[in-house]
From TrEMBL:
Stretches assigned to the Thiamine pyrophosphate enzyme TPP-binding domain: 400-526
Top-level taxonomy: Bacteria, Bacillati, Actinomycetota, Actinomycetes, Micromonosporales
Signal peptide per UniProt: none
Keyword Membrane listed: no
GO MF term set: acetolactate synthase activity; flavin adenine dinucleotide binding; magnesium ion binding; thiamine pyrophosphate binding
Domain Thiamine pyrophosphate enzyme N-terminal TPP-binding: 1-101
Pfam families registered for this protein in UniProt: TPP_enzyme_C, TPP_enzyme_M, TPP_enzyme_N
Keywords noted in UniProt: Thiamine pyrophosphate
GO biological process per UniProt: isoleucine biosynthetic process; L-valine biosynthetic process
Similarity comment text for this entry: Belongs to the TPP enzyme family.
One of the record's GO cellular component terms: acetolactate synthase complex
Domain Thiamine pyrophosphate enzyme central: 180-310
Identification of the protein by name: Thiamine pyrophosphate-binding protein
Amino acid sequence: MRVAEVVGRVLYGHGARYVFGVVGSGNFHVTNALVAAGARFVAAAHEGGAASMADGYARTSGTVGVLSVHQGPGVTNALTGLAEAAKSRTPIVVLAPEATAPRSNFFIDLPALAASVGADFHRVRATHAAQDAGAAYRAAARGATVVLGLPLEVQSAMAEPWSGPVPAVESTPVTAPQVEPLLAALQAARRPVFIAGRGARAAREPLIRLADECGALLAVSAAAKGLFAGNPWNLDVAGGFATPLAAELIGAADLVVAWGSTLNMWTTRHGELIPPSAVVVQVDHDPAAFGVNRPVDLTVAGEVTAVAEAVLGRLGQDVTGSVDGGWRTPELARRIRDNGRWRTVPYQDEGGGAPATIDPRTLSAALDDLLPPDRTVVVDSGNFMGYPSMWLDVPDVAGFCFTQAFQSVGLGLASALGAAVARPDRLTVAAVGDGGFLMSATELVTAVRLALPLLVVIYDDAAYGAEVHHFGPDGHPLETVTFPETDLAAIASGYGCDGVTVRTVDDLGPVRQWLAGRRTRPLVVDAKVSGSRGSWWLEEAFRGH
């Protein structure tokens, strides 16, 4: 048995069930070995799309994604998607063939490339192929993007046949978290707020129980949107996407506990959201994350679930019973119910004109009414991104995929394809701008091949809107970032999708009909949105540049 076959069998044995990629000579045998073992190969049109598909699949499924690319340019084509995955700590194994001869035209410094984007690097050796492949998968399962170097000469070498057993993923040694300072802070607080981030995605139930015990309100970073969906004390996303009510209440907190969140500038509006008088606590499994974005008063090292349960255990032993939460009143519950969503915030509709355009808020609200509750919303980067993030509800934390860690335009469509593979039982909605759509439209070929329920909504302002609204007010010329109107629905139809152009709410009739049908052909909605207003969330973003 050759090493390439061993690697494929080992990865399948560890749990790899889907592999995304573009096959060339360097990854032909290892990809076929995965398929022969039982995995399904999803052929992308471009390695950049394949990387984002693996990322979206892993985020939505909660399992390890696998990416297979050709040596040299196959790896570099995937680099932007890998940077997004690594910065998001997405569990992915990248099968990266290596041309190790320095004079080869395919040679790149693969370990340095992986390090440059924050990914881990492993390399397969001929004498330890099974161990090396298994170690890479287990490292990914613990929350890393892992580039697995597969030297070409090693892949073709003979190795001992492998048929198992599969070593278990080593659990992180558990030590009892030191929760006494956090417990004391919770007992002293009258207006506590929990802000849960990416590191708390698996901790919904213990955090809700703890919030109930101490009377805390619940909020999330954008990466954890949906975590507290359905809870009456849920304020939804903190930071730039926060509703006026959420900003008001977080701004009145006397204690803010960040659970698996580093409280970056997006989550805190550059620190302005959290009042200076509030005690700030950060809970994270990685002590290196403490205080990286702002000073904190207390830190607790440990997995979020373990820390929350440890505090709950101590509260249960407290002779005074549960901690008294001062602001969970019927009146506040009513305010959150009636004013806690962007749908309830009044605005002046800015659609109309000739030719007609639709206000992106009106579009998003209408779509939220049309779409089934079981949905996965995947959001690309751009001036538009707040509208789907704020106006489209999701059923749970797995229902929202936010491709913003690297702030790259053009990753949303392919990420949505990976999410659709992970959850074919749900409608996947890819929300993209016209710039990001045109960067990634080639993957519509993949969408048609997959025949999965996919709705692509293009917020089309015929511009790179972020730059228009950032530089336009200062009188800078904008010809480099504005474009003639383009029939994006026709482009989508050319790829084999259904396409519709939307300028008013009345134009959404075909969307309603598509939703009522079989949904086996992707539907692309070219929504001609009004571009007269900038977005406050990108004003925040440019402040961080």
